[in-house]
Amino acid sequence: MTQTSDALLHGVGESARRPDATLKVTGEFAYASDLWLDGMVWGATLRSPHPSAWIRSIDVAPALRIPGVRAVLTHEDVPGEKYYGLEHKDQPVLAIDQVRYQGEPVALVAADHPETARRAAAAVVVEYEPRPAITDPRESQHFVRHQPVRRGDTFEAEVVVTGEYEVGMQDQAFLGPESGLAVPAEDGGVDLYIATQWLHVDRDQLAPCLGLPPGKVRLTLSGVGGAFGAREDLSMQVHACMLALRLNRPVKIVYGREESFFGHVHRHPARMRYEHGATRDGRLVYVKADILLDGGAYCSSSPAVVGNAASLGAGPYEVPNVRVDATGVYTNNPPCGAMRGFGAVQACYAYESQMDRLAEACGLSPIEVRMRNAVSQGSHLITGQVIDSPAPLAEMLRDLEAMPLPGPRDEDLRGLPGGVSQTTHGESVLRGVGYGVGIKNICFSEGFDDYSTARVRAELIGGEPHVTVHTAAAEVGQGLVTVQAQIARTELGIANVTVATADTSVGSAGSSSASRQSYVTGGAVKAACEAVRERFEGLPPGEALERFGPIEETREYRHRPTYPMDPLTGQGDSHTQLALCVHRAVVDVDVELGLVKVVELAAVQDVGRILNPQALEGQIHGGSAQGLGLALMEEIQVRDGQVLNPSFTDYLIPTILDMPPMTLKILENADPAAPYGLRGAGEPPTLSSTPAIAAAVRAATGLRLTRVPIRPEDIALFDKG
């Protein structure tokens, strides 16, 4: 289960070929759902149909009577602690006396066949006593976190614009469902092969629930079919391990698509009220904001999401006076947690919508109002933190404005909103152009001990120098395996590099989230390689290895420290690095049918230093696509706590037909504090693409459109007043 970079002949800065590329294109790549062991049985989960209810009784006997059923477990069978959680242990392994959201796990079944397991789970009889559900976050009295940001005392201005905005619940919509294989071990422990984002935190949550020491819970990364934040939390990990330990047999669990929608966290829906005050020439005097985030039934990473929304709540603009309140609350809606952009996405949609309103009120262009308020190196965030590395936002906006616009609309029906299904033949199609700017923190913030570990071994194999890089960093499709090999080759000058499969036998690498792995794991690999190189004593690699034998070094890498936000004022150096992206969107809108076609997206992003040009472009395209989805189509529909569209039939994500051509300009202004000067790049495009598209639709229609995703009925009412 190793990935060898025999084809990687390039180092940092070049488009080295991904070792998994051909296998993924041909369908031969082994994902976690492909795992198989002789003698394994299949697990299935019984989930609550109610968003809020007491559990009065559970009868497992009907399930046990089904031929082929090996075990049925409830909370009474949890061998250790009954609660786990990413930040707080508030989530039960299996529901105990109540359920708090639709889809909460209640019982587990293991059987010889997956269909038998599913039928047996459905046969478990649970007596529920439904109770009123809290589904409106404005009515919740249970706070996850409230984070104010206070700066200055002037809240009067010549021009004042206000707005109320809403962001729907977006799903990460990865293509590989939750899956894994748990194998009992001879030492009484368990080996888990799993698709995840964070091996060590999975282990540290699993071990107490299984009643085992961490050393007896060993995790190995299996093929991951996308993540985007949803695999930070546990899903089926503890359930598969419980069944495997009970039966002393391998147990495999694979969610179907519908169950996947219930089995992981989502992006927090948000309700936001903003007020911007400025001078008549458009220079910001103050920003007030109330940001309410629906965290759903359990904590997950909501406290950190609230912190991001608060600290970045006014955007990358110079604002001397600020009064921001970000609040996350518990409800009986599906749990929400990490998703690409992590709190900054919701705030960005609101503050960028406000900047367009301010531009209109001051008689300025959308670009000009942003340039007049743009941060630069030396500026302060609203938390008081100084931006101490390049932040060329004004230059980026000028570059974006200078990019040529696409030509006039093609009269071919296939180029119209709705494509060949277009029925109005273009007579009601209007074009609009909009802009969006986003700022995103990179790496973990607020004092988190954020580090990664790398073990690098150089040796002669068949007479040729060879390097093995081993980290616990999860490759979730972003190309991290490729980058680790590029770094090793650059630092050691050795072409043959193997990146070992990530597992918990090496020190933690943290999560593959927060655009952090190139920074921290890249930094750890670089440091370990430097330590190996020092032991070459100036000799060429082959000669050094022949003289000294294999050389192995392990290093941890930490970025510079961060600090918690002050709980009353929000002040503090809470972030280690900040990244900027700006987007321009061009859209065609059919105002009779309510259809939108994104004609073009243009983006400018500063990435500090390019490690792999092709992979970087993929990240910007992918982030922009998820932002497009949030702007126009992606939303989990929840009514009274019930999910109405848990399928890719009804939950729509952009396809290749929805993604327009993209024009990119990538800047390299090195961050002196980061390895190679790099700046995390995966998340920023998700922020700015959404408000740019929404602004373009507003420009085409003249409608306010204060909610995303924009629905057809929001537009089709245009000509009806």
UniProtKB/TrEMBL annotation:
UniProt xrefs under InterPro entries: Ald_Oxase/Xan_DH_a/b (IPR000674), Ald_Oxase/Xan_DH_a/b_sf (IPR036856), Ald_Oxase/xanthine_DH-like (IPR016208), AldOxase/xan_DH_MoCoBD1 (IPR008274), AldOxase/xan_DH_MoCoBD2 (IPR046867), AldOxase/xan_DH_Mopterin-bd_sf (IPR037165)
Chain ranges of the Aldehyde oxidase/xanthine dehydrogenase a/b hammerhead domain: 26-132
Q: Can you tell which superkingdom this protein's organism belongs to?
A: Bacteria
Task: Give the protein name, as stated in the record.
Answer: Xanthine dehydrogenase subunit D
Q: Which species is this UniProt entry from?
A: Nonomuraea monospora
Lineage from the top down?
Bacteria, Bacillati, Actinomycetota, Actinomycetes, Streptosporangiales
